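ok trying again, last paste got cut off:
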Amino acid sequence: MRIIIAILFLFISFDTWAQNDHSIIQVNGVILSSDSSRTLPDITVLIKNKDRGTYSSEWGVFTIVCEKGDTLQFRCLGYRPKDVVIPTNAKGSFFSLTQTMVQDTFYLPETFVRPLPDKDYFNYAFLHWRINDDKYEIARQNNNMLRLRAISYTLAKDGKEQQHIQQNRLTRELEYQGQQQPMNIFSPLKWGEFYEAWKRGDFKKKD
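nice, full thing came through this time. structure:
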């Protein structure tokens, strides 16, 4: 019920605003593919020379408020860009639009694939050639957890992390305010850590 009241209030407010300025218009439309008439989601709809826009929903539907005479720019990767001018003589405060998008064709550079002259060349190439990683492999390596953990140990802490450490230190001090803090010499966990470090040889003299 609250949602219905909010929607009615939105339309009433828009009608009142549009009556005060007759150049304001709400454009409601649907975006279709020209070859199959299927709806196209995630199509960017921008108002030319203005910092406003929207995008189509999963059903290809969009709505945007602009001025009469504005140019709507429809953009999406894989489709040709399309500009539509809202008529200046459009009547009323609402305008319906059905926009079709034409698929664009991408031409890639020609690639030649040739076999190696002999099978022995394959063994040499497999052992000695160094092929550069593609963008996918670089992105996968950059998200490697071990690498990220190693980087986090070497990078300096930012202000947020320093504040977190300071707050934890103050919290520990407040826990034992007015009394003696416990000593780690009586902690079984610390003795366990000492024993493991001693077995690893952390205390051996290093040259």
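cool. The helical segments are 2-20, 119-128, 135-142, 145-154, 159-175, 188-200. Residues 2-101 form a domain with the Immunoglobulin-like fold (CATH 2.60.40.1120).
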